[in-house]
Amino acid sequence: MEEDEVEDDNIPDFAQYTGFEGNQTGEEERDADGNSVADDFGQMLQDAKEDCESEKGAHKLDKMLEDHRTSLYPGCEQGHKKLDTTLEFLQWKTKNGVSDKSFGDLLKLVKNILPEGNKLPETTYEAKKIVCPLGLVVQKIHACPNDCILYRGEEYENLEACPICKALRYKIRRDDQGEVDGQLTKKRIPAKVMWYFPIIPRLRRLFRNKGNARMMCWHAEERQQDGMLRHPADGSQWRNINRKFKDFGKDARNIWFGLSTDGLNPFGEMSSGHSTWPALSNLGNDIDVYLRPLIEDLKLLWKKEGVPVWDEEKQEEFNLRALLFVTINDWPALSNLSGQSNKGFMACTHCMDESESMYLKHCRKVVYMGHRRFLAANHPVQKKGKHFEHTADHRTKPKHRSGKTMFAMVKDLKVVFRKGPGSQPIESEDGHAAMWRKNSIFWELPYWEFLDVCHAIDVMHLTKNLCVNLLDFLGVYGKWKDTLEARNDLKHMEQHGDLHPESKEKGSHYLSPASYTLSKAEKESMVECLESIKKVIDPDILEALQNDVVQCLVSFELIFPPSFFNIMMHLLCHLVKEIGILGPVYLHNMFPFERYMDVLKKYVRNHARPEASIAKGYGTEEVIEFCVEFIEDLRPIGVHESRHEGRLWRKGTLGRKAIMTVYNNLFRKTHFTVLQQSSLVAPYIEEHLALVRARNIGKSDAWITRHHIDTFYAWLRQHLMGNETINQQLAFLARGPSGSIATFQGYEINGYTFYTRAQDMKSTNQNSVVRIDAMGHDGTTITYYGAIEDICELDYGPVTTGNNPTGVPYVRALFLVPGGKTEPQTKPYPLDMWKYGNALQQRPEDRSLYGRGATIKTMHPESSLKPF
Fold it and tell me: Which stretches does the entry tag as region Disordered (predicted)?
């Protein structure tokens, strides 16, 4: 929202159309002049032109299609086109955050270098004008400066003043003389403007991209369904919606929205003098006024007929529907959106009027205790009254309020939205803040009352505030919160007599050490616990996890002063229930949205018009992002290039040496391990193993395996010798590696970095530890933890093990076998034949040596790891 918005004529407006449906006939498309538009980019532009709603917009798209066919300069042999090149330049500008002035100077420089008659635009304005026809609609809606109404719809669209507070719609210029005959009317400046990006045309464009359309069905077609909680679809709320509204759940393409709201300071300063919409600190309850256009779109998307959308993946038109699954906000914003008070004596949005709270006289704040009632019935701690104000607590935990129950509480509330005099807040109850401050606009959604959790607890802010509170009390960092005021509250409540402050001379006080003072090792253990948080959880352990959380809070009440128990500490007892309802918290927290705020700040070029800068910058990037998908070798904006890019397959990085070796026992076993992991060799392994068993009837399985390993490589070479019909790669593998071996101290492969133990001793990060899950003949899996001793590379000639012909890397590792004993000998394993997982493993018996490393799995029975 912007207080002083004016039309910016220096930036071209985008043509406003609602998307396009795609070619549904399957025939080759041609434009009005009969020119073929068979390539993907041209086809996309042709589809957009046909579905454009205005003649002016269609003319702009026709010009864009012409630019797509126009060479960058006469005689351009590289095939560069005017439109494609302009998009590449704009993509580079957005990626690197280049200002408009710098970008314009670059365009002029490059244009002068190119041959005469080139079509490269000279200014930033011209470059944006070339791609602007693909921009989606952006609505600029005038608003009352006191947040009473939006000037839209038949009722308010043509008004000159707010019907509620009588504030004028437009600012009055100092030199305004009113309307004068014979003079042009000056353009008036609205007092406040809201920028709205309608979601329906953007959903149409989302499905226009084949990859995006395919991913929109991932949760139904590709999601791993093993009973674990790893996605919102695994939560109970998703399943309940599908059961309640069966028509909605039938089509996996229907969208489940999460809504996040937050304010930002567009200037990157600590000052809060300006906050960009939604600016919850300024809007408060009045945010419902500005949510009206979004709610209307959500209602339209919920209707049974939905909106027609073209699916590029399935090449068909379907009726798209959508619902708002949950909102994701920080704690103050949750109150503004829900209309529920989340401060004072009834701050808990789950306990509501059953919140257990008290006011601390000396710390001057409300705290939330009484967590014994969340324990299981007849828990022994409920009877130990001497530790809890000398009383037992056999109360049951507050009951969960369904959406219907909460709707019954608010449906009759009447609130007038506005700032200043005349607003009508909800009256207070018994001198305390009212539990509900408004009837939220979200209750207008037909399905909202059927949601078990409408507004999620934001785990990002909860974790941050909880850790700051806990670590400050423990003295790990920050301000020390075990203050004199906290101790005086203990004395006032007659609790923890050993922690009461002792008065000394000259008005000073002595605070005795508390039991929660941690040693350095205990602090490190707590941080390691935070590092062990997982994204996937077993729903069967949720009940045990809930009990653990409550018991921790109850234990905290025994040792920490009451000032420790702010609302964030209390919300922990409701977090586990939300996980079961909504799924893992990493998919409904503020982390990605807070990071995106930093992206929006970088769009601000004109500090006098920050909202306009953000809107124009976002619109330009929206066009570029869509077009990039149709141009090869262009990476989407914001997707950073991995430091392993171009070297994911294999590359030795440190300490390369070339050595000569002989065919000793270790070398032969290394060669066999390489053969064992190749799919080309797998049929011959089975053939040779059957042959060994047939010739050695009565021998044990262990003897058969050893004999198979010792003789296979020689048998394979002899068996395939002279056979000209076999695969060339197989022939090189059967011949065996060269006697010249390259060794490394460091190696990068499959996105992982591996070091030898010797190199690890010189490094800060540990990269030498691995884990192997080996399956034996009996089907059991044995886990081995080891540290890499050597990294070598075998040269098989032009054998391709990936994208590039190169040697086959392998490691020689020292393993820790079950039982805690270290292998007296080591064994080689090829690196690039293994499947790597991203789990970080820890060996509790010896964390100094076997700390963390990549998970490595091999499923061949012959490779079962046994002492030898």
Answer: 1-43
Amino acid at 270: M
Q: What would the two tokens of residue 428 be? A: 């207070």
In one letter, which amino acid is 493? M
pLDDT at residue 745 greater than cutoff 60: yes
**How many angstroms separate the CA atoms of 90 and 11, rounded?**
14
What average pLDDT does range 121-147 have in this prediction?
A: 89
Give, to the nearest 10 degrees, the angle between helix 567-582 and helix 459-474: 140
The token duo for 65 is: 């299609």
Q: Which of 148, 144, 186, 185 is nearest to 168 (CA)?
A: 144
Interval 346-371: pLDDT, tens? 888 888 888 888 888 877 888 888 88
Give the pair of three-digit tokens for residue 105: 């100077």
Residue 437 and residue 426: Cα distance in Å, rounded? 5
Cα(253)–Cα(251) distance, integer angstroms? 5
Q: How far apart are CA 99 and CA 124, in angstroms?
A: 10
For tokens 């609602």, the residue is 18
How high is the pLDDT of residue 640? 64
Residue 348 contacts residue 567 (beta carbons within 8 Å): yes
Identity of the residue numbered 862: E
**For residues 757 and 815, what is the distance between their CA atoms, to the nearest angstrom?**
12
Mean pLDDT of 262-275: 66
Token digits of residue 87: 């998009």
Pairwise CA distance, residues 467 & 473, whole Å: 10
Cα–Cα distance for residue pair 863/829, rounded to 1 Å: 10
Q: Copy the structure tokens of residue 444.
A: 């207008």
Starting at the edge strand that comes first in sequence, how are the strands of the sheet with 455-456 ordered? Answer: 255-260, 322-328, 455-456
Task: Tokens for 375, please give them.
Answer: 């324990």
Q: How many CB atoms lie within 10 A of CB 4?
A: 13
Q: How far apart are CA 232 and CA 584, in angstroms?
A: 7
- For CA atoms 689, 690, 693, 694, the dihedral sign is negative
Residues 6+ apart with CB under 8 A from 622: 135, 136, 202
Angle at 789 between CA 786 and CA 790, to 5 degrees: 130
Which residues sit opposite 816 in a β-bridge? 785, 822
> What CA–CA distance (Å, rounded) separates 856 from 834?
6
Q: In DSSP terms, which residues pair with 747 in a beta bridge?
A: 652, 754
Place of tokens 């104000």: 389
Quickly tell me which residue has 């399905």 as its tokens.
447
Q: Which of 858, 660, 815, 831 has its CA nearest to residue 747?
A: 831
Question: How far is CA 745 from each of CA 290, 469, 643, 653, 759, rounded to the nearest angstrom?
Answer: 60, 44, 19, 8, 6
Task: Pick the closest to residue 251 from 315, 317, 304, 320 (CA basis).
Answer: 320
Domain ranges (residues) in the chain: 1-143+192-197+610-640, 210-347+400-458+590-601, 673-735, 740-863
Distance CA 330, CA 697 (A): 72
- What are the structure tokens assigned to 612, written together? 């306009």
Distance in angstroms (rounded) separating the CA atoms of residues 867 and 552 = 45
Task: Using the predicted structure, report yes or no on whether residue 858 has a pLDDT greater than 80.
Answer: no
DSSP 435-451: SB----GGGGSTTGGG-
Distances (CA, A) of 855 to 731, 759, 785, 814, 852: 31, 20, 9, 15, 9
**Rounded to whole angstroms, how far apart are CA atoms 325 and 241?**
9
Q: Are 277 and 611 in contact (CB under 8 A)?
A: yes
pLDDT at 736: 78
How far is Cα 179 from Cα 162, in angstroms, rounded to an integer? 22
Matching residue, tokens 């704009």: 90
For tokens 């509250």, the residue is 489
CA distance 375 to 396: 8
- Tokens in use for 148? 């009473």
Distance between CA 458 and CA 586 in Å, rounded?
Answer: 10
Task: Give residue 728's pLDDT.
Answer: 77
Q: How far apart are CA 696 and CA 128, in angstroms?
A: 78
